[in-house]
Design a protein that fits this description.
12 helices; 68% helix; 11% strand
Length: 321
C-alpha cells in the first residue's frame, strides 16, 4: 500500500558523504559522553532495596513520591505492581545505611502520609547481582549483534552485513549517549528497548537491501548509485507508514505511560528516529563505499544458472543414434 508515490528518484547517495560525516560526529560525541559522564545505572544494576507496599484503596503515587523525596531519595522509582493498590518502590543503596534501616525509614515516611499502608515484602539486591545483570546484558547485546551480522551475510553479502551492523550500532551508541549526557536512569527496561531498537533497525535495513538486490536484477545497465537511490525512493512510502504508526504508539507510552514506561519509551523514540536515518543515509552509503555491485550480489547466481541452461541445451551423442 502506498499513500504517496514519488515519481522521480531522490538522489540520496549524492548526500552520502554529508550524512555519514554527521553520523560520525554524533557517534564520537556519544562515545565522549559515555566515557566522561557514564551511564546512570538504576537499582537493577547498582543494587539497592525493593519494597512492596499495599493500601486498602487505590494508591496515590504522587503522594508516595513526595514521601520518598522527603527522606532524600530522589533517585527512587515508584510504580504500581499487579494492581492499583499495590506499589513497588525501588530504593538505591546509600552509604552508611543498611537495607533494613532504609526500608524502615521509608515505611515510617509512608505512614505519615497514609497510616493504612502495609509492608508486603522487602528484597535486597546486592551489587554482585547488579554486576551479573550488567555482564549478562552486555553479552545479550553482543550475541544479538553477531546474530544479525551472520544473518545478513548469509541472506545478502558481507558488505551489506558490515554496513547494517555499523548503522545499527550507531543507533545503539547514540541512545546510550543521550542517556549519559542527560543522566537519565538506565535500567533493565531501557536495555530491553535498546535490544528492540536493534531488531527494528535491522528490519528496515533488510527491506531496503532486498529492494537494492531486486533492482540489480531489473536495472541491468543502471549505475550502483542509481540502483540504490531508486530502492530507497520506492520503499519510502512503506518507511513513512511503518515508522509513523510505530512512533505514534511509542509517543503515547511516553506521554501517558507514566514514570514506569517513560525511559523505556524515550529510548525507543530516540532509536526509531535515528533508525530511519541510519538505515537509509548511513547503511546504504557505507555499502556503496565498500564496493557493493551487481556482480557480488547476483552475478555468481546468474553465472551458475547460465551454466545449467547450457548443460541442458547441449545435445547428447545418443540423440543422433
Amino acid at each position: 500500500m502506498e499513500l504517496f508515490r514519488v515519481k522521480k528518484d531522490i538522489p540520496f547517495m549524492s548526500y552520502g558523504r554529508l550524512t555519514t560525516a554527521i553520523s560520525l560526529i554524533t557517534f564520537i560525541l556519544a562515545i565522549f559522553f559515555l566515557a566522561t559522564r557514564g551511564l546512570n545505572f538504576g537499582v537493577d544494576f547498582t543494587g539497592g532495596t525493593m519494597m512492596e507496599v499495599s493500601y486498602p484503596q487505590a494508591a496515590d503515587l504522587n503522594k508516595i513520591r513526595q514521601a520518598v523525596d522527603s527522606i532524600g531519595l530522589k533517585d527512587a522509582t515508584v510504580q504500581n505492581f499487579g494492581s492499583s493498590r499495590d506499589v513497588l518502590i525501588r530504593l538505591p543503596a546509600r552509604e552508611g545505611i543498611s537495607g533494613s534501616q532504609l526500608s524502615e525509614q521509608m515505611l515510617a515516611s509512608l505512614k505519615t502520609v497514609d497510616s493504612s499502608v502495609l509492608m508486603s515484602r522487602v528484597e535486597f539486591v546486592g551489587p554482585q547481582v547488579g554486576e551479573e545483570l550488567y555482564e549478562n546484558g552486555a553479552l545479550a547485546l553482543l550475541l544479538v549483534t553477531v546474530g544479525i551480522m551472520l544473518y545478513l551475510a548469509m541472506r545478502f553479502e558481507w558488505r551489506f552485513a558490515v554496513a547494517a551492523i555499523i548503522a545499527n550500532m550507531h543507533d545503539v551508541i547514540i541512545i546510550l549517549g543521550f542517556f549519559a549526557f542527560f543522566q537519565w536512569e538506565f535500567n533493565l527496561t531501557v536495555l530491553a528497548a535498546v535490544l528492540a531498537v536493534l531488531g527494528y533497525s535491522v528490519n528496515e535495513s533488510v527491506v531496503v537491501f532486498d529492494r537494492v538486490r531486486e533492482n540489480f536484477r531489473k536495472m541491468r545497465k543502471a549505475s550502483v548509485v542509481t540502483v540504490i537511490d531508486n530502492a530507497i525512493t520506492r520503499t519510502m512510502s512503506r518507511t513513512v507508514i511503518t515508522h509513523f504508526s510505530t512512533q505514534l504508539m511509542v509517543l503515547s507510552m511516553l506521554l501517558f505511560g507514566g514514570e514506569v514506561l517513560h525511559n523505556f519509551s524515550l529510548a525507543l523514540t530516540i532509536g526509531i528516529l535515528f533508525g530511519i536515518y541510519s538505515s537509509v543515509l548511513v547503511a546504504c552509503p557505507i555499502a556503496m563505499y565498500l564496493g557493493v555491485n551487481r556482480t557480488n550480489l547476483i552475478g555468481d547466481v546468474e553465472k551458475k544458472e547460465g551454466e545449467k541452461k547450457e548443460a541442458v541445451a547441449e545435445p547428447h551423442p545418443s540423440d543422433f543414434a
